[in-house]
Design brief:
By secondary structure, the protein is α/β, with parallel strands linked by helices. It is 42% helix and 12% strand. The protein is globular and about 50 Å long. The structure holds 6-O-phosphono-alpha-D-glucopyranose (G6P) and magnesium ion.
């Protein structure tokens, strides 16, 4: 039995969600827009361009395309500055164990991320070689909750969406997986990710038997 195991990146494999938040917060502050951790949930899984629009919307700020482009560059430069020293230690707890288990069991492993920075992050953290397929923000036109990114990943692995499992920390990503009729596994808080088929606080909570059951189903 071969299944497709599709992983989101930010907040699932690596703890970069906190850096996205810090970088967006600087932009928001410079525009006098109040931007909280709660607001940040809306940005998880959402593209850079759309994230800026959401933040501007929170502050009812209208801006020219020129200004928006400038802020998008600023945000990414600031975000990348947090990643300079990134190494293996930033892989979230329990992730490696699951990746190794899936490799041992000869399962399809894919990345399904909205980020345009995905490859260098996977490289820096030493997990790139686990992935058979990478679909990221450079490969898709429709952002989560559109299922395009996950459907493309399954297709490249030659595995049916119904035989695919998605690990996600964002509401938009869980919705995308559900729309694609894949098994959705939420990584994070139950109150936020309640639409997921299964929810775990983090990967250390996922037992080998849970993965084995998914493989044999
Ligand atoms: C992920 C993150 C979002 C981020 C998006 C784009 O989905 O959850 O917070 O905005 O990727 O990432 P990028 O690295 O291209 O700005
Ligand atoms: Mg995420």
């Amino acid at each position: 039995n071969k299944k497709a195991f599709i992983f989101d990146l930010d907040g699932v494999i690596v703890d970069t969600a906190k850096y996205h938040f810090l970088a967006w917060q600087k932009i928001a502050q410079s525009l006098n827009i109040n931007f909280t951790h709660e607001d940040n949930e809306l940005l998880k899984g959402v593209s850079r361009v759309r994230s800026l629009d959401i933040i501007l919307g929170l502050g009812n700020v209208q801006a020219s395309q020129e200004d928006k482009d400038k802020w998008l560059i600023q945000k990414n430069e600031d975000y990348l500055s947090y990643l300079v020293d990134m190494d293996e230690s930033e892989v979230l707890p329990g992730v490696l164990k699951i990746l190794k288990l899936l490799k041992e069991k000869n399962q399809g492993i894919a990345l399904g991320s909205a980020s345009k920075n995905a490859r260098p992050i996977l490289e820096k953290t030493g997990v790139l070689s686990y992935f058979d397929v990478i679909v990221d923000g450079n490969d898709v036109t429709n952002a989560k909750p559109d299922p395009e990114v996950f459907l493309k990943a399954a297709q490249l692995l030659h595995i049916d969406p119904k035989n695919s499992i998605v690990f996600e920390d964002s509401v938009a990503g869980i919705q995308a997986a559900n729309i694609a009729e894949m098994v959705s596994v939420g990584i994070g808080e139950e109150t936020i990710l309640h639409e997921a088929d299964h929810i775990f606080k983090d990967f250390t909570q996922i037992e080998t038997s849970f993965i084995n059951d998914l493989i044999s189903q």
